[in-house]
Amino acid sequence: MSIILDKKTVKSLITIIFSAILFAWALKHIPFIMDVFGTVLKPMVPLFIGGALAFVLNIYVKQLERLFSGIGKKKVKRAVSIVVALLTLILILALVLLIVIPEMARTFDNIGKMLPDFFEDAKVWLEGIMGSFPMFEDYLNNVDLSLENIGETLMDVIMVGGNNLADFTVSVLTRLFSGAMNILLGLIFAIYILFDKENLGRQVRRILYAYLPEKRVDQFLGITILVSDIFQKFVTGQLTEAVILGMMFVVSMLIFGFPYAVVVGVLVTLTAIIPIVGAFIAMAIGFFLIFVNSPVQALWFLVLFFVLQQIEGDFIYPKVVGNSIGLPALWVLAAVMVGGGLYGILGILLAVPIASVFYVLIKRNVGNRLDDKDVDERKYK
Questions:
Q1: Helical residues (DSSP H) of the chain, grouped into ranges
Q2: Is 325 in contact with 352 (CB distance < 8 Å)?
Q3: Whole-structure pTM over 0.70, yes or no?
Q4: N or C: which end of the chain has fewer CB within 10 A?
Q5: What does the pLDDT average to over 111-138?
Q6: What 3-state class would DSSP assign to 143?
Q7: Which residue has the higher pLDDT, 14 or 1?
Q8: CA distances, 371 to each of 195, 226, 246, 374, 376 (Å)
Q9: First-residue to last-residue Cα distance in the chain
Q10: Burial of 219 (0-12, 13-18, 19+ CB in 10 A)
Q11: How many CB atoms lie within 10 A of CB 27?
């Protein structure tokens, strides 16, 4: 009995076999593939940075263009909007560099002066607590909490790594210079994108429609519009939520007389950009700063933190961010956990909007399939 295969079936079999061979080879040579991708993508880093900056700045630029609608020509309005957006970015960076960083430097300088007394007080406090536990008393007496001992330990660590200190310094400076150049080139690229974004969009659409099936391009462009909309809403909502939460911390800490209110508030604002887990980073730093000054106040700071976090989680985040991206809280938490486990901080930042895109696409697809099958709604509602 002979089996006759048509050309379409043969072509499909060849494609499947070739894909399986390619996939098996890729699994066996993952390090080589990663090196190749790294070599190819490294020169393109400024382009990726520029694209990301243009995407974020474009949210603000569009609002400014509406504000400056009375200005004459479109190019003039676009130029003024971009300049104002860049000046705003520079102003924020200047505030961080000229106000926040010096304030943090003074804070850590004060902490450094307080550490000797703090270690002595901590040792006395531990002795009082452990006095009723004889099994720990001998161990505590052998623990040297003096600043001199800690300094000697740090010096030993530095001396051990002293031979590589020069190489490490050169490596760090090289990376800092390379990073600064990438950001500068990316900023220049972002400005060009913002000035000519409509023309660039037309060029991309022409290329896609010229080389790909029209139906596929329509689907792809529909998805890109959805992705852009969700990411813009996420960025806007996350920044708004971070500023609100930071102001809540500053005001409440000043009212209740906590030290380092401005520093902690700024840290909360900066770290709250990272969904869910960001504020806890600021909590740990703020707890340490206040604990050195007053352990009792540090404990009350934890109480204040969890109260504000509860308010933020129940009222602010769902209204400002959650509703804007349409992702339920359960899936936000799941996305953050998966993204953080795979790619760290960057994964956490991107996980929520990416999960929102998949959530909307799957929801639409499920709805269409149920409509096509004409399933009785009572079976799944």
A1: 7-28, 30-41, 45-67, 74-95, 101-130, 134-141, 147-160, 165-195, 197-211, 214-255, 261-271, 278-293, 295-311, 317, 323-325, 329-373
A2: yes
A3: no
A4: N
A5: 64
A6: coil
A7: 14
A8: 44, 22, 46, 5, 9
A9: 51
A10: exposed
A11: 9
Q: Tell me, what DSSP letter sits at residue 1? A: -
Letter string b/e over residues 315-332, b meaning 16 or more CB atoms within 10 A of that residue's CB: ebbeebbbebbebeeeeb
The Cα–Cα gap between 57 and 197 comes to 12
Specify the pLDDT at position 206. 93
Amino acid at 206: R
Contacts of 118 (CB under 8 A, 6+ apart): 292
From the number of C-beta atoms within 10 Å of its C-beta (0-12, 13-18, 19+), residue 215 rates as exposed
Query: Cα torsion for 246, 250, 255, 259, to the nearest 10°?
Result: 130
Q: Is the pLDDT of residue 123 over 70?
A: no
Do the Cβ atoms of 229 and 292 come closer than 8 Å? no
Gap between the Cα atoms of 274 and 238, Å rounded: 8
The predicted pLDDT at position 269 comes to: 84
d(CA 133, CA 18): 70
| pLDDT given for residue 322 in this prediction | 59
Q: Distance between alpha carbon 293 and the CA centroid of its chain, in Å?
A: 31
> Rounded CA gap, 16 and 134, in Å?
72
Give the amino acid at 370.
L
The residue assigned the tokens 């609100």 is: 244
